């Protein structure tokens, strides 16, 4: 089935004339029609619009025009990114039918790369704590996580080879872990947030999901770039992720493992799986006590997140009492207790965390950590604790979720690999090396 192709394989076959984008897109749409009723990964799909895009990409190839790195490949887009011709409802009822007048920066980049914006994937209301209706494809009685739930589920079940997500705490790495796909949150500021729902200007970060490490890398390469409209965006050369995947480290990498303040909450299966990974590395990994500031970061992250969420969305009709559930009501109540002094102290801690890790990574290639505390919780039991991502997201560090573990009930779980700021290519190089050690595979796909 064509929908089973990786993004790089599909792009290569389209480029070489072995398949057409229309054929690939039709295969994905048919698979969605057959399987999404039980999963509910999608908030919006327009079959005719998707096939119209695919036909246009096939026409460019037939005319001998330039082709992009993801030419003709369908991609799912989390329903917080503005899209012309498609509604962007931010996962809410009150914004249903909202039609943006301009594309988000990431949509501009996808179109430039020749990708097909297949549709909008389901998200939590306002991309925050409350669950979406999406179910985990590995067991529909379990959650796919939040808030990039639809993107993770769509990639996991094979609706699309790639999807966009976002992370303000653990909204991308956690669902990637729960759904058994690769997830990547890059360095803060590497991918523009223009045209994306803003919940926290200090913490919101765009990320990607895929079924292979190299697929993640090429999508991140496509999306990266400076954008003066995003104050976090930086006008410097960006890392090269796919090149990192395909480059052998000059020496075997060195890793760190922290005794994190939440490690005692790991499930038995996750703890055992991580221990196997660490033991396979032998002397290449150093076990370290966590600085006391790591515990403080958990509180400071909450202060920044809730203060800025309220600042950005206090007047939005989606948080009026009749539109919110008990989870969001409790968060909003607490957010109103965060003082200006609390917020400023937290921002100072954020700057300190960036400085700490810049020095730390002089001695290590990556930190190994859990991507989630265990496997996905059951539906109705929340979207899972994002704590495994809090420290790294707060510091703006690039992070990967690698689908290598199995939970207590046989559901997937991820290993998280964290790298240094603006060294995302090095993180991919290290991840590809580690994948070969752990899985004994090359982790490489054809094409580029």
Brief write-up:
The chain is of the alpha/beta class. It is built from 14 helices and eleven strands.
Rounded to an integer in angstroms, the radius of gyration calculated over CA atoms is 20 Å
- CATH structural class: Alpha Beta
**Quick one: CATH superfamily?**
Amidase signature (AS) domain
Distance between the termini: 21 Å
Number of strands: 11
Whole-number tally of structural domains: 1
Strand percent estimate: 5-15%
Helix content: 25-40%
Which structural class best describes the helix and strand composition?
alpha/beta
**Main sheet properties:** 11 strands, mixed
Write the CATH architecture name. Answer: Alpha-Beta Complex
Global geometry: globular
SS field, number of helical segments: 14
CATH topology: Amidase signature (AS) enzymes
Overall pLDDT, averaged? 96
Low-confidence runs of at least 5 consecutive residues: 441-448
SSE topology string: HHEHEHEHEHEEHHEHEHHHEHEEH
Q: Can you tell me about this structure?
A:
With 448 residues, this protein is an alpha/beta fold. The chain has a single domain (1-448), classed as Amidase signature (AS) enzymes, CATH 3.90.1300. The chain contains 14 helices and eleven strands. It has an eleven-stranded mixed beta sheet with strand order 1-3-2-4-6-5-10-11-9-7-8, sandwiched between helices. The chain is globular, with a radius of gyration of 20 Å. It starts with 6 loop residues before the first helix and ends in a 9-residue tail after the last helix.
